[in-house]
Amino acid sequence: MSKFEEIQKVCLRRGIIFPSAEIYPTISGFFDYGPIGTLIKRKLIDYWREFFVKSEDNIFEMDGSLILSEKVFKASGHLESFVDPITQCKKCKSMFKADDLIKELTGISVEGKPTEEMNKLIKERKLKCPKCKGELSEVRLFNLMLKTEVSPVGGQIAYLRPETAQNIFTAFPRISRAMRAKLPFGIAQVGKSFRNEISPRHFIVRVREFNQAEIEMFFDPENPACPNFEKIKKKKIRILSHEAQKKGKEAELMTVEEALKRKILPNEWLAYFLVKEFEFYKSLGIPEDSLRFRHMLPEETPHYSKGNFDLEIKFEFGWKETVGNAYRTDYDLKKHMKFSGKDLTVITEDGRKIIPHVVEPSFGIDRTIAGILLHCFVEDKKRGWNWFKFPPKIAPFMAAIFPLVSKDGLPEKAKEVYEMLRKEFDVYYDEKGSIGKRYARADEIGVPFGITIDYQTLEDDTVTIRDRDTTKQERVKISELTGILKSLIDRKN
Ligand code: ATP
Description:
The protein is globular. Helix 3 packs across helix 12. The chain has a nine-stranded mixed beta sheet with strand order 3-10-11-19-16-15-14-12-13, sandwiched between helices. The longest helix has 20 residues. About 35% of the residues lie in helices and about 25% in strands. It is an alpha+beta fold. Adenosine-5'-triphosphate binds next to strand 11, strand 16, strand 19 and helix 13.
């Protein structure tokens, strides 16, 4: 069994993440987060918000509706071009995303290429259904948006948003005025997006309902400087350039200053976000060599974009885009201005009326969680059980509180400690089963510390703190426990 499959098993058994409505035959691509998964997801989003929104003076967060009128998607281009090529096996009826299937079977990338080219390859190479070797149908385009009809009398066509970005563009004039925002400024949004994916797979990596966290950073194209650039220009990130891709080389570690000089990166704003993303993912336990920014090839890049960089995480099944970064210029605001007839311009400090340009980092929260689960998973033969090395910032609980045995007044004392700690931290109390089993259960969901109340506690008011990563125990006074736990958490974060 692969590591990723092992993780899914743990997620099911511990009710962390599991198929939605699983008591019925399920529809693939939908997952529920149970109590532990919800804590992890919520903490990840909070951390994202701290890292990318609250730490900046000029990024505002909004929370827009999930269902938007057809008009929005006519303007944004989704109605016409948010499509994937699809092919179906004539025998077993399995559906495939044609470009992925061709890549899988031939190694040739046809992403963004016309369907004719894909049909030609299928014919020439006599490609067959990988499941039953049946014949594949003609490739056709399939729109990924989920359609719905609003109002009891119908007729109001709407779509579940396929990305969070469109709320930001449509709310742009109101938010910029209401917040008296001056360029450069950003609008962020975290929330659900929906895509009718052709073949959802790899657990929560490709699903039909998922969480995104996006920022649209608006700036004046005539003044594209990022005020914080000086602070980060010497930071190194791993970039897989066009050249490296052509030559089949690895990603290269370089400063963003150099990447700008070499004209790999288009502007300081994008450089700024890439540096922050690299730091963010490393701080979540993903090793540097399992992260890279792939400069998207011209054929994968929309015509309006002046540079797309995917932050990719290495999975067992290949590198997967987890954050899409794009310099979208003024494309979106211009389109919405045209289709709505509303004025989406802003006046610059020096009195020019402009449509701002925008740099967009677009994070997939569920894909990020999948990456964290994989890279924090420790297969530990010596210990006898597997566990997650989550950094405390996203661990579901900071500590578990255990009475050594469930008699002789130890549970009562342990509950006192629990009541004290729960005021400060996410902690839980567990007295069921042997102490070894309880350590294993806590490790398995990545709880960084275990606090055990034993017979000595009753004599001298001390407890032991067990470190998940080393399994070493340290005896401390209950009166000092809160402070010590705080510093231990900080050290591990
Ligand atoms: P892909 O090529 O993998 O379909 P995309 O290029 O369509 O992704 P974007 O539109 O750039 O993705 O979306 C931004 C981010 O949202 C992605 O990097 C990913 O993390 C997340 N995301 C997109 N589609 C899905 C999905 N079906 N399931 C889970 N996460 C997704």
